[in-house]
Amino acid sequence: MDALTIFGAVAGAIDMCSKIYQSVDSVLSQIKNAPDTARDVLSEVKVTQTTLKSFHDILERKPVIPKSASSRLSVGALADVVEDCVRTLDVLRETVKTLSDPDQGRLPLYERFQWAMNEKKVSKQLERLHRVQTCLQSMVILCTG
User: Where does the source fall among the domains of life (predicted)?
Assistant: First the structure.
């Protein structure tokens, strides 16, 4: 994965965060006693999106990683973290996809929160997303320092 592909992947991940957030937020606004996992998805996705935007801004301003950071950070490491982020967000997006699918119309409550019944799967993806987010935050620090 080259720098341009990384840049595109980061932009795509930002868009995925936005879609996931909108899907879950629209359902949570309609349901008072939503599962804690749904609220955790909102929180984690929002922080990840903010981190990705910071990283995207850095890539836009500094297409070349500063020498001080490049000795500690390789393009391969960047690619691995971004790929993991995209994969994790993709699984979350698929999990909440029916919440925002306009072709589905208004879904019954059971189907809207069917993904919440897979608590382990959602929790596992949230843990992965948090780890990736931490790596991205470290990379942001390295690239700006």
Answer: Eukaryota
**21: containing domain:** 3-144
Q: How many domains does the chain have?
A: 1
User: Can you spell out the DSSP letters for the chain?
Assistant: --HHHHHHHHHHHHHHHHHHHHHHHHHHTT-TT--HHHHHHHHHHHHHHHHHHHHHHHHHH-SS--HHHHTT--HHHHHHHHHHHHHHHHHHHHHHHHHH-GGG-SPPHHHHTTGGG-HHHHHHHHHHHHHHHHHHHHHHHHHH-
Q: What is the pLDDT of residues 53-91, one digit of tens each?
A: 988 888 787 655 555 555 566 777 888 888 999 999 998
102: domain CATH number is: 1.20.1410
